[in-house]
Amino acid sequence: MQTIPGYHIKTLLGEGGMAKVYLAVQNSLDRPVAIKVLDASLNQDPAIQQQFEQECLLVARLNHPNIIQIIDKGISEQQLPYFVMPYVKSISLETVLPRKDISLTRKLDILIQLCGALVYAHRNNVVHRDIKPANILVDYDGHAYLVDFGIAGYFTVNKKAADKDAVEPGQEMIMGTGAYMAPEQREGTSRTNQRSDIYSLGVLMHELIFGVVPAMASEETYAIPPAQDKYAIIPTLRPLINRCIEANPNQRPTSVDEIRQQLLLLAQGRHLQVNRWGTESTRDNIPPNYTLLDVLKENPFGATYLVNDPNRQRFLVIKKQNLDHLGNAPQYAAKLTQVQHPHIARIYGTGKNSRVFISAMEYLPGGSLQERLTQSLSLGQCLTIAQQLCNALACAHSYGIVHGNLRPSNILFAEKNHLKLSDFGFPPHSYGGDGHWYQPANEPVSTGADVYALGAILFQLFTGNLPTADYWGLKSRWRLRNTPKPLRKLIMQIIHTNPTKRIASAELAGAGFNQIQGEQKTRILEKMIGA
């Protein structure tokens, strides 16, 4: 048994190819935790030690409801690396598979949740490498969790491959579990990418729906009794699964989000256990042929739904907000229905009744900027984001529209590097611990406050932190020390706490970023010519 300061280890929960997992109590908070400890037999291998440490730090930055986060790490008294996770009372999907009482709808729910976790991980450039039933946990409320990002499973290591530059064909580290590994994954970790996870996901989907992995399937495997598929979903699922397990990565779906969207269309909202759509949609005069696909958010202030508009063959986002928490949203949304800007989320229509304000907007599949804050962005990516934000704000301000609550969660992506602003005019709220970090203290809503929020977001992108409340604080300047001097000066002007000394408009800020990006391109070109 391991001895880890600050934790009381109670029992062994399980063990895999490279680690053991213990149930323990965190003494300082008196809460149960799960501790994964590297197996002693692997502790002398520098390649595995490095992988354990690297992936531990990587996953610790992920924050998603379907991913169990790492909350602590260290070295045990037996000199073995470990990391700590919240303990979730659950069973693995491996245990669920043999059961005959799990409905097809329930299985779709697990897969949709799993896809959500993978979409988030892939957006943050994290590849799991070991998708399999043993690495999916399901709690007693039906919540699914993806665990063991890149650090579980079985490792085949050639000692000569520890130095990446010295890797020869056939000598590279191979990570994964045989039955679920993509063909390219068997050639080594350097050939493993997001589409390798898609292959593993396809194998898991096949096993969950049909009872066996594809390699073990026969014609009888696909003879599903009608009673198990009363919605005729399985015949549609099989082609999707077959695409996922194509040997050629280029023939697989381009992203996990594409798979998730297909699963949502098949489920037609039947996977949802509790939501307010069914009782409210008729009263709110929402077109009856709009099909609920997913609940994106629900809180005391309202709800946001993903729906399918069959007439136009598109997804829509329906947002309902309580009348006592609207701010200027209704009048701004009415203006935005007439605005088509490449960096402002399109509003298709609005409505209002005695209970809620309703808006229908385009669905942006790329997630929010909030979801990307865990990864390091290049200077070029940050400058592109800055220019797009400035363009969007400048356009909105020209129509008399002030955002008033600009923050990373309101910046959405249509594609990887193409963002759009949303939720203009809604007042800030602190539900769920979301503080008013991006607004200048004691300053009313205004175009100037929007400019400050823009600067605070960019400061966070470049430094990983928010600016200090005191503009003249040395800490903010010190955190920007690694950015080019012109950029550092521009951002400090944008986040000036004195509105009269702040850059006057989003348009001027955008011009500044354009100039800096032009100078960066010139320097790169000069280096290339010089080389």
Topology:
Blueprint: E1 7-15, E2 19-26, E3 31-38, H1 46-60, E4 72-75, E5 81-86, E6 90-92, H2 93-96, H3 104-123, E7 136-139, E8 144-146, E9 154-156, E10 174-176, H4 194-210, H5 234-244, H6 256-267, H7 277-280, E11 291-299, E12 302-309, E13 314-322, H8 329-336, E14 347-352, E15 356-362, H9 379-398, E16 411-415, E17 418-421, H10 447-463, H11 474-479, H12 485-494, H13 506-530
Antiparallel strand pairs: 1-2, 2-3, 3-5, 4-5, 6-7, 7-8, 9-10, 11-12, 12-13, 13-15, 14-15, 16-17
How would you describe this structure in keywords?
13 helices; 19% strand; Phosphorylase Kinase, domain 1; alpha+beta; five-stranded antiparallel β-sheet
Structure description:
With 531 residues, the chain is an alpha+beta fold. It has four domains: 1-87, Phosphorylase Kinase, domain 1 (2-Layer Sandwich), CATH 3.30.200; 90-158 and 170-267, Transferase(Phosphotransferase) domain 1 (Transferase(Phosphotransferase), domain 1); 277-362, Phosphorylase Kinase, domain 1, CATH 3.30.200; 370-530, Transferase(Phosphotransferase), domain 1 (Orthogonal Bundle), CATH 1.10.510.10. It contains 13 helices and 17 strands. It has helices spanning 46-60, 93-96, 104-123, 194-210, 234-244, 256-267, 277-280, 329-336, 379-398, 447-463, 474-479, 485-494, 506-530; strands spanning 7-15, 19-26, 31-38, 72-75, 81-86, 90-92, 136-139, 144-146, 154-156, 174-176, 291-299, 302-309, 314-322, 347-352, 356-362, 411-415, 418-421. It has a five-stranded antiparallel β-sheet with strand order 1-2-3-5-4, with helices on one face. It is globular. The N and C termini lie far apart (58 Å).
